[in-house]
Each structure stands twice: as C-alpha cells, then as structure tokens.
Amino acid sequence: MTYRAPLDDILFALRLAAGEGAIEPGGVYGDIADGVAEQTLTEAARFAEEVLLPLDGIGDRVGATYANGAVTTPPGWREAYAQWRQGGWNAIAAGEDYGGLDLPALLNAGCTEIWNAANMAFAVCPLLGHSAIEAMEAHATDALKETYLRRIVSGEWTATMNLTEPGAGSDLGLMRARAERANDGSYRLFGQKIFITYGEHDLAPNIVHLVLARLPDAPAGTRGISLFLAPKFLPDEAGAFTRRNDVRCAGIEHKLGIHGSPTCTMIFGDEGGAVAFLIGEENKGLACMFTMMNNARLSVGLQGVALAERAAQMALHYARERKQGRAPGAKETSAIIEHPDVARMLLTMASNTAAARAICYETAASIDRTQRERDPARAAAAHERASLLTPVAKAFSTDIANETTSLAVQVFGGMGYIEETGVAQLMRDARICAIYEGTNGIQAIDLVMRKIRGGDGAALAREIDDMRAIARDAEFSQEALRESVEALAQASAFLTKAEVTDALAGATPYLRLFALARGATLLVKGARAATREKHPGAPRYAALARFFADHFAVAAPGLTKTVIEGGASVNESHAALNE
Ligand SMILES: Cc1cc2nc3c(=O)[nH]c(=O)nc-3n(C[C@H](O)[C@H](O)[C@H](O)COP(=O)(O)OP(=O)(O)OC[C@H]3O[C@@H](n4cnc5c(N)ncnc54)[C@H](O)[C@@H]3O)c2cc1C
Fold this sequence. Notes:
The chain is of the alpha+beta class. Among the domains are: 157-286, Butyryl-CoA Dehydrogenase, subunit A, domain 2 (Beta Barrel), CATH 2.40.110; 442-570. It contains 19 helices and twelve strands. The chain has helices at residues 7-18, 36-52, 56-62, 77-86, 105-139, 142-154, 285-321, 340-372, 376-411, 414-417, 423-430, 440-452, 458-472, 478-497, 500-505, 507-532, 538-551, 556-565, 567-571, and strands at 65-67, 70-72, 158-162, 178-181, 187-197, 207-213, 226-231, 233-235, 241-244, 247-252, 263-268, 274-279. The strands form three sheets. Strands 3, 4, 5, 6, 7, 10, 11 and 12 form an eight-stranded mixed sheet that branches. The chain has a two-stranded antiparallel sheet with strand order 1-2. The chain has a two-stranded antiparallel ribbon with strand order 8-9. Strand 4 and strand 5 form a beta hairpin. Helix 8 (340-372) packs across helix 16 (507-532). It is globular and about 80 Å long. Bound molecules: flavin-adenine dinucleotide. Residues 128, 161-164, 169-170, 195-197, 255, 263, 432, 435-436, 438-439, 441-442, 445 line the site of flavin-adenine dinucleotide.
C-alpha cells in the first residue's frame, strides 16, 4: 500500500471549509450539491490510484530525458496524459466560456491534493497549466482565447509559465528577457529562461508559453514587465499549427526530486525573434501574474498536503507491520507503532497534515466566495481573507511536507534510506515545494509586509476573532488554544509597528505561529462538528486536534517571543556570519 486517497477526510474538510448549508441546492456551492463533490472526488481518486500512482516510481527512476532539443517523458506518461485529457480532468476548474466545467476552487483543491499525492511530477504539468489558463481568462484578447485557451483547457495543448532567469528569481525586477514590437501588432521575444517546468515534452503536439519580458522603452524594475504568449508551433497558411516558432529547449536539469517533470532551459529568439502576442497591457505583466498568484500558491500548498498525507499513510502502514523491541508492558516483541516515540512521530505527521489541509481548504473556500458571494461586502471580505491565508497555506503546508516526509524516512528506519521503499522519493520530491512559486521566505515576507502591515487590519482581526471564539468553547486543550491565539494577536500587534528590519527578521517564525494558531483552532472546530454529526472519523479527528494543540500550538508563545525579541539577534549578529 503506497497511497489510498483519503476521501472521507477530504470530503469532511471540504464541507467544513465550505460552511454550514453551503453545499446544498441554493447554497454558495449549490452546483456541487446532490453528490457532485463525492462523485468527482471518487473518480479523481480512481484515476490517481489506477493510472498515476503506478507511474510514480518509474518517473523517479527513469526521469525525463533530453536529446537534440527534444524531451522524452518516462515510459507510460504519454498514455497517462491521453487518459487525463480524455477524462476531461484538465477542464474542471476552468471557466465555461472556453470549454471548462467551472467547478469551485474548493473541489479542485480536493482533486489537486489527490493527483499530486499519487504522482506529483506528472500532476505539476496541469497544475502550472491552470495558472496560465487563469492569466489568459482574465487578461487575454478574445482572439487569443479562441485560438489557444480553448485547446489548453481541453488538454490538447499544454501551457507553461516562463518567469525565472539566471539573474532573476525571487526578484523579477531584475529580468532581462526582451520584447520588440513587430509591424503587424505582434511582438518578437529574445532571451533565456531557466527552470521552466514542462517547457518541452512529448505529451502534447503544441506547448503554449506564457513569458514575462521587457519592452525597449519599459520603466526599470517590476513596473516595466509585460506578459506574452509564444507558442512552440505557429499556424501555417492553412491554419494548421506546423510552423516552428523561434523558441527551443537547450537542456533539462538533473534534480533532487520530481525526476519525471522536465525542468527546462528555454531559449527565445536565436533566429530572429520568437513570435509572441501581448496578454493584457504593455508593462502590466506583473499585475497579470498576480491575478492567478493566489491560486498557484494554494496549489503548491496542496502539493505539500498531498506528499505529507502519502508519507503519513506509508509510515502508519509500516509501523503496524514492523516488529522491534517490547513496548511498555508487552510480553512479546511489539509492532513499532506500540512504542510511544513512534506513535508520537505518526501523530505528528497525521496532525500536521490535517492542519495544513484545513488551512488550504479554507483558503480555497475564500477564493470561491470572492467570486460566488452575491453581497459585495462579503465578497470583498472573502478576497481579503484569501490574500491573508494564501502565504500561510503555501509555506506551512510545504514546510510540514518536508518535515513529514523526513519523519516517514525516520519511521522506516534504515529501510527509509533505501530507495526501494519509496519514502525517500517522497522526501526528495517534497523539497521543491518550499522553493518554487515564491520561496517560503518570500511567502513569510508577503504575509508580514503586505498582509499584516499593508492592510487596514480588518481581515486579521476577523480571523483572530474567529479563532478566539473556537478556543473559548473548546472541550479540550483550551488553555493551549487560548494562549496560541493571544500569542498571535500579540505578535501581530508588534509587527504592525516594528522596525522594518525586525519585521523581516521575524517573518518566518510569525508565519509558523499563525499556522499553529489557525491550524489548531480549525482542527478543534472540525472535531466538534464531527462529534455533533456522529461522523465515523470523530474520535480520530478529536485525537489529532488534541495532539496538535498539546504538541504544536503550545509553541506559539515561544514563537511570539522570537518575533518580538529575536530581531536584534538577527540584525546585530553579522559578526557570526563574517569570514
Ligand atoms: C524544479 C523547479 C521547477 C521550477 N519551475 C518553474 C517554472 O515553471 N517557471 C518559472 O518561471 N520558474 C520556475 N522555477 C523557478 C523557481 O520559481 C525559483 O527557483 C524560485 O522562485 C527561487 O528563485 P531563485 O532560485 O532565483 O532563488 P533566489 O531568489 O536566489 O533565492 C535564494 C534564497 O534567498 C532568499 N531570498 C531572495 N530574495 C530575498 C528577499 N528579498 N528577502 C529575503 N530572502 C530572500 C530566498 O528565499 C532563498 O532562500 C522552478 C524551479 C525549480 C527548481
């Protein structure tokens, strides 16, 4: 057993995040009432377990390969992609105008978790394609949508996001790729992009690249970046996409993990310029990218939940089978799960995964409510909440994915370090999630500088009020919960007024503190709801909520001390870093 989609847990988390009565005819999620959510997730799980999961190991061992500008995906991936496309999975969250099913972000979140748990190196291709779909839906011309978006939504073609360059990673203002205006209203692109996921491959006949580049008269920095669409193949005179554009893949990276996913160096404009079309307005490219940033970051957070869930399942299964030593009071050799220290590791994995899932699904529900609430004030509040929670969802979930996959290796002991058992692959695959789509350090800075210090504080105040109310009524671990929420309130108040250097130094501990208080209160809320509705998972949810509160939320006051007092020992300690 390497992975079974936890449908009951996902459905429960989904309903909790949706809110009471929402998934009913007439509710905000009326379109997924009457079993649509259950059916969609069940089918997504079947596809994940039967098609994607068996290819995960071979993807890791064989990897994507490069020769003469072409990239070959691992054996079986072309067939799996054809099935993915035929199943209509690519279209589920896209808008109806261009062939999408327009299902809620919340349901897409459940599917994204399941697919990435089964095979993240495969699932990252459509995940990034979805970002391109969103950017195009919001900003592309109707003509571009008709020609390209429709085929990306159906999965006939795939799409990429070309942001990163050798000199421009976290700081896109340093970007050098250049665009020139052509006489016919199109543009020509020149430059190099690196680390482009699925920039070249053999899964689909055409690849649509969304590329950030700078026009000759553009202002310096991020205000001078424009977004372009440059396909691998352009239409010939008969309208068939046979004409090769001036864009090529110069090589792929040898990486720590996700070996099945080609990470490409892309060269634009070696032979006169890659033909490209503007998306949105000139010099407004970064604003276009921000449209879809919340969803893309949430999706990477869900990759973290996915890998953590799979690692937790594998470790639990192994710990029940493996016998070593005698547990206290046992007369015979025990399964290692009987040892309190192993139980602690397993509970750490399961409870962190549940907390991360709860935060991610709340974020997805807030994204949905932004679009689905009829009352403008409620929609605006939902938008603010999605913005506040997104960096927490991304960074906490992917941090705990690294911790959880590492713990899985620990539970397996020496066998965990041996590749055949498969847990080492999870640890290697998980590592990238904390790096791409904005490193977790950048997420923490976004949380503190833009969301906490930048806004009017209303979204944070509502969030803290909600946490306080849950803590007040908690049936267990009330003190740990209350203290964690008050610690968050105290650190937040400090950060709104702190010196910039102190705020930046405290950003990462603050994000963890936020996630602990929010995660603990959401788990307690879930446990209470499960008990009330006599859900079969209620005893497990209560045990996980209590463990998370007593083992992790209790760290909150210490983190607040670090946020408030620790800045100086970062900013005044350069002596320790000088050579
Ligand atoms: C497997 C893989 C797939 C990828 N896929 C894509 C893709 O499809 N498209 C794409 O465009 N890119 C992609 N990337 C690139 C990825 O998004 C970047 O690697 C990432 O944004 C970090 O940029 P960087 O590597 O230049 O690191 P740097 O920006 O050099 O960061 C290095 C370290 O410094 C920290 N740091 C940097 N600036 C600051 C700051 N202002 N304050 C505090 N700390 C800071 C970072 O947090 C990090 O810890 C991919 C990368 C990999 C490895």
